């Protein structure tokens, strides 16, 4: 149900149904608030206040925030404000940001705001945010009796023939009161006169027409004129009044007053008709002849607002428009017309002109709320703009519908009253479209329809909804062994479709695999966080680790952060950095390219009866490198009897090149070179001792001679090094003892 809340300001109260008159000095304001709550809602969607006219600027209309269910603590976040489609109406009221009270911003004059309309109200919207809601607020401007009745002239001149019979009626001019309601209900009083009395007659418009009634026969010779005072009193409290002096001349010829064909004329005319168009014709006749029967027409006590719009022909009674007729400014005009004959008698009639509406106003679009930027993860239905549409026309001409003209993920839906919400119709994706420009079109249902347009620009802000994406799911890099530490290995790159910090990518190592040796060692590579470049942390050794893999994570700067990973596999390329290693006959000592090293080894016994091709021994060697760097070839580089032996190039087999003869020395020394195919090539040598004898017993004398002989150069070197080491140790010990003795003595 609709409830009424009466609020009183000041010391003076207000009774039920009582009209309140505003006094600026006293500052008493009576406010009526009517709340229309809806079911299951904390605040009404429509508020109605009432305030008397002439309320001064700064007066409180009502506690708007409290009536909307807002506390003072909510005001900073809810951002209560007033909006209206009509700037003329919005200027009258304001809302306090601190208290939430509704205040009067400009003095209210009901007659200026609404003219003679029966009702007068100002309508606007109260908008709150977080969340968004719109409430319609109506403020009724109550009329107070601030205008007195007014006659058009200070004196009414009448001429009445002496032959006029008692009971004759003479219509008088009606007074005008700009107030409405009971404040404009006029009653008339006539000063006492034995020859005349005052009566009133109700017109079709509901107003009272004063008429002067002759009580007694007139005798011009006894009294040729009469003076009376007519007083008009309105129905206000306290009442206001206006007076006019009536001067009656008694004549002896003019016995008929002009009579209109109708007591009230009505006409309908379209607004915006050209100036000078005929609106209405009034006609009055007078039964007298001559100048007494000649009728002239004029307005009867009409306000300046009527005279600025209409004119009347004094001879023809034609009423033309001399100003622009605007339905939006005034919908109807009611005024009086007087017909006066040459003898001074007057007849009156009422004219009512109704202005019909034309579709001459396009809808006005007002942005009550506009969100410039919206996150791309906003759900469908999120409000981005609140649009108020107003059409000053009426009827179908004022019925407005809105639509969006361009394709976009937005839609427009009707809200309360004549408001529309622009909402998201589907999910937004900043990566597809970072800005949406839509045109709101408001069209009325007039004929022809009128429309207006306004463009909305909406920017879509980024949220971190995209993870970085590597250009490749897996990367491969090839690095030669013995590389320098800190050398660039590979650059990975990931792209993030987001913007700003959400699209700023950093790189990290997650983990990897490089075998057990790599697990115990320091990390092989590192990655630069900004560029994604991988650098070698140490020199790689193909013989220890031929390949390894690491996982690189690309992570953006959003919150929460998003990431993705890619696998980087690094292949170590072999270099020829290992010389061949002789396993048989003895372990070889590696030498530099072109300078083979000498290795002593065991002996082999070859019978003197051996033929050519006899297998003496086989040199066995390996190379830690791979590929061509590990392909080995064998070559005999030194022999006691070079023509006696040969070495197989690929297998390293040592065979006799010819049959052994008695002339060949019993002891043979062979030096075999083992060389790889790297660039540059590396080599090693193996020394093989061969004894030519039929049996082992026969070979023993040769071996003993070799043992009794001079020691080999390698044994000599060993003894020299050992002696030098002993001398150095004795020297160090002597120095230490001397220092210790001196320290002890000190």
Automatic annotation (TrEMBL):
SMART domains: CA (SM00112)
Transmembrane segments: 718-741
Molecular-function GO term, any one: calcium ion binding
Signal sequence range: none
The UniProt record lists the keyword NADP: no
Domain named Cadherin: residues: 43-151, 152-260, 261-365, 373-470, 471-582, 606-703
PROSITE patterns linked to this entry: CADHERIN_1, CADHERIN_2
Keywords: Calcium, Cell adhesion, Cell membrane, Glycoprotein, Membrane, Repeat, Signal, Transmembrane, Transmembrane helix
Membrane topology: Single-pass type I membrane protein
A GO BP entry: homophilic cell adhesion via plasma membrane adhesion molecules
One GO cellular component term: plasma membrane
Domain of life: Eukaryota
Reported function: Potential calcium-dependent cell-adhesion protein. May be involved in the establishment and maintenance of specific neuronal connections in the brain.
PANTHER family in UniProt: CADHERIN-87A (PTHR24028), PROTOCADHERIN GAMMA-B3-RELATED (PTHR24028:SF73)
Protein name (record): PCDGH protein
Organism the protein comes from: Crypturellus soui
